[in-house]
Write a structure and sequence with these properties.
By secondary structure, the chain is of the alpha+beta class. The protein folds into 2 domains: 170 residues, 2-Layer Sandwich (Alpha-Beta Plaits); 216 residues, Alpha-lytic protease prodomain-like. A 4-stranded mixed sheet has the order 1-2-3-4. A hairpin with a 2-residue loop joins strand 2 and strand 3. Helix 5 packs parallel to helix 9. The longest helix is centred in the middle third of the chain and has 44 residues. The two termini are 28 Å apart. 31% of the residues are buried. One of its GO terms (molecular function) is monoatomic cation transmembrane transporter activity. Its main location: membrane. Keywords: Membrane, Transmembrane, Transmembrane helix, Transport.
C-alpha cells in the first residue's frame, strides 16, 4: 500500500447529516440538501433470514423489517453529477488565469494548456468511477468479487505453480552457473534463486492455512499469516545478502594478482536463460498483480529477480573482461539492492499488520453505505477503516433517535454490520449506535503501555 493509502480516518463531529428532531440545529445548505431522512438508496437490502426478529419502531409486532431506503433511487442525486464521455472531451482548462509573480495574467503555453486540460479531464473520469462505485449495490460488489475470483482461479494456479516449478529449475541452473564460474556476482544471483522456491512454498502454505481455520481457536481467521510469512521471508533474504556483502568485502580487501577473472560462457548463458524465464513470469503476473495479493508478491519477486540477474550478468562479464574488482563490487551492490528491496517490502507488510488507514476510495464507499442504509439513521458520527493483515477492519458510529426501541436499533446496526462484512476486502465490521454527535470518541488512543 502506497503513501496515498496512509490517510486519516473519516471522523465527523458534528456531522452535516445530523437531524435530531428533539434538538434544533443551525440550518445550512449541506443539511437541507443531504438530509438523510428524505433520502433513498441503491444499497442492497438485507436478506430476511439474516436475523431472528424484526420490528418497526413504535410497534411491538415481531417479524417485520425496519424501514429502509429503496434500491431504485439515488439518495443524494449522485447520478446527476456523472459526465458523459462527450462532455468530458469538451472540457478545457482555463488558460487565462495563470499569473506571474506581480499578478499580471499571462497565457499558458500550448503544451501546458494541453497538459492541464488532460489532468482536468482525468479528474472528471476519476469522479465518474467513484460515483459509479458508490451507486453500485453491495450485492453487486460481492458478485463482482466472486466472479473475479472464479475467473482468476486458473490464472492464479498457473502463476503460483508455474512460478514454483520454474524457480526450482532455475535454482539448479543458477547453482551450476555460480559453482562453475566462481563469480561472486553469480553467487549473489544464486542465493536469491535458491530462496525463490521457499517464497513460493510460503505463499502456498499460507493459502492453505487461511482456507483451513478452526473458528474456536482462531475466531478472527488466519488471513494475517500471509503477512507474517512475508515478513519472515523478507528478513531471511536480507540476512543472506549481508553474508554475501561480507564475503565480497573480504575478497576486495585481499586483492588479486591477475587483472581479470576467467570468462565462463556457459555460466553467463545459464543466467541469461534465468533472466528470460523471469521476464516471461513477470509479464504474466503483471496483469493480475492488483487483483490477487499473493500474485502481487510473486510479481514483485519476479521484478526484483530481473534487476538482480541483469545486473549480475553485467558485473560478472565486467570482472572477466575489464577489471577483476568489478565482480565483487557488483556482488556488494547487488546484495545492497536485494536488501533494500526486501526491507521495503517488509516495511509495507509491517504497515498492514500494524493497521494503517484504508485508501480514501474504500472509506468513501463504506461511508456512503452507512449513510444510505436506513431512514432510522439520522447521522453518521465516525467511520474508520484500517488494515488487519491483507484485509480491513471497519468501525462505524451511527446516530439514531433516542426514542427508538432497542429492537429497532439492534436490527438496523446488525444489518449494517452484515452488509459491511459482505464487502470483499472487509474482515470485520463493528457498528456502534449513538443518539448524538457531541460526545468524545468512544475509543481513546493509548500511547503508553
Amino acid at each position: 500500500m502506497g503513501d496515498e493509502s496512509i490517510r486519516h480516518s473519516i471522523s465527523m463531529h458534528p456531522h452535516p447529516f445530523h437531524l435530531h428532531p428533539h434538538r434544533p440545529d443551525t440550518p445550512s445548505k449541506t443539511t437541507t440538501s443531504l438530509g438523510l431522512n428524505e433520502a433513498t438508496s441503491t444499497a442492497i437490502e438485507a436478506t430476511d433470514n439474516a436475523t431472528q426478529h424484526r420490528v418497526i419502531p413504535g410497534s411491538d409486532e415481531e417479524g417485520q423489517l425496519p424501514p429502509r431506503y429503496s434500491m431504485d433511487n439515488d439518495p443524494f442525486q449522485l447520478a446527476s453529477k456523472l459526465k458523459t464521455p462527450q462532455e468530458i472531451e469538451k472540457i478545457e482548462a482555463n488558460t487565462s488565469r495563470k499569473r506571474t509573480g506581480v499578478c499580471n495574467p499571462i497565457a499558458m503555453a500550448p503544451g501546458q494548456a494541453a497538459q492541464s486540460t488532460k489532468r482536468l479531464q482525468g479528474f472528471y473520469q476519476s469522479q465518474n468511477e467513484t460515483i459509479e462505485r458508490m451507486l453500485k449495490p453491495v450485492e453487486e460488489h460481492v458478485r463482482a468479487a466472486r466472479e473475479l475470483n472464479s475467473n482468476n482461479q486458473l490464472k492464479y494456479r498457473i502463476a503460483v505453480w508455474g512460478s514454483f516449478v520454474a524457480n526450482v529449475l532455475l535454482c539448479v541452473l543458477q547453482v551450476y552457473a555460480a559453482a562453475s564460474s566462481g563469480s561472486l556476482s553469480l553467487f549473489t544471483t544464486m542465493a536469491d534463486a535458491v530462496f525463490d522456491p521457499m517464497s513460493n512454498l510460503t505463499l502456498l502454505l499460507s493459502n492453505k492455512a487461511v482456507n483451513r481455520v478452526d473458528p474456536r481457536k482462531f475466531p478472527a481467521g488466519k488471513a494475517r499469516i500471509e503477512t507474517a510469512g512475508n515478513i519472515c521471508f523478507c528478513f531471511l533474504m536480507t540476512s543472506v545478502s549481508f553474508i554475501l556483502i561480507a564475503f565480497s568485502g573480504r575478497e576486495l580487501s585481499e586483492g588479486r594478482s591477475a587483472d581479470t577473472d576467467t570468462f565462463h560462457l556457459p555460466s553467463i548463458l545459464a543466467v541469461v536463460v534465468a533472466f528470460s524465464t523471469k521476464f516471461a513470469l513477470f509479464a504474466y503476473c503483471w496483469a493480475l498483480r492488483n487483483q490477487v495479493s499473493q500474485i502481487r508478491i510473486l510479481w514483485e519477486d519476479h521484478r526484483n529477480d530481473l534487476l538482480i540477474n541483469g545486473f549480475g550478468i553485467l558485473t560478472s562479464v565486467g570482472g572477466s573482461k575489464l577489471r577483476w574488482w568489478i565482480d565483487p563490487m557488483g556482488a556488494i551492490l547487488l546484495s545492497v539492492l536485494i536488501s533494500c528491496l526486501w526491507l521495503r517490502t517488509a516495511y509495507g507488510e509491517f504497515q498492514l499488520l500494524i493497521g494503517v488507514t484504508a485508501d480514501i476510495h474504500m472509506q468513501q464507499l463504506i461511508t456512503y453505505i452507512a449513510m444510505t442504509h436506513s431512514p432510522l439513521i439520522t447521522a453518521i458520527d465516525t467511520v474508520r477503516a484500517y488494515t488487519s493483515g491483507p484485509r480491513l477492519v471497519v468501525e462505524v458510529d451511527i446516530v439514531m433517535d433516542p426514542e427508538a426501541t432497542l429492537r429497532a436499533t439492534h436490527d438496523v446496526a446488525e444489518e449494517l454490520q452484515m452488509k459491511l462484512e459482505s464487502l470483499p476486502d472487509v474482515e470485520r465490521a463493528y457498528v456502534h449506535v449513538d443518539y448524538e454527535t457531541t460526545h468524545k470518541p468512544e475509543h481513546s488512543l493509548k500511547k503508553e503501555l
